[in-house]
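Researcher: For the record, we're logging two predictions in this thread. I'll number them. Prediction 1 follows.
Model: Prediction 1, sequence and structure:
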Amino acid sequence: MNQNNLDILIERSLEIRKKYHQLEIQHHNDEWTLEEDALAYLTDAGLVGRNIMSHQKRWMKKDSAAELEHKLAENIWWFIVLADRTGIDIKDSLEKFLTKTEDILK
């Protein structure tokens, strides 16, 4: 994936989050807080764990392959949202992480 594609995916992710904020306002009169977003992410991260267990035949669950694919992508989406809400440039952070880790493993 080239940089432009990542930029587009980030933009689309943030637009989707704006639409969810509108739904939150409709249903609860205000947007979720950063903490609520983090808790939602943690819930989805836990579901990745359960679906991985199902993938390994350690937890029986119907349609876990499709849900695992969905939840892995949703977790990436949450990272983009959480980075944006905390003022972190996710692309820059990922680059720094990869470079640092590559340097450690040389």
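Researcher: Logged. Prediction 2.
Model: Prediction 2, sequence and structure:
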Amino acid sequence: MYKIMLCCSAGMSTSMLVRKMTEVAAERGLSVEINAFGIAEFDEQFPRYQVVLLGPQVKYMLKTLSEKAATQGIPVQPIDMMDYGMQRGDKVLDYALSLIEAAN
């Protein structure tokens, strides 16, 4: 099972994207767990996931969050702004899966 965490300022805007990603994964027959959290929950939640994707509004925190997650080998990357804005669940899912593969 793939475990993907999306993170934005409050977890609200990414929750719509989570739904789209989950639908695409179901169509492809992939077993996934995708959840959205606010930045305040990052430290508590990230160890449970294989990858963390950041919403554009918290991209400025990439360096700090990457360093925290690197201690456990978990990649942290920003979501492409166009994919985020257009709610392209397929593209964001593909990106997350590619990061998980590269980390293994």
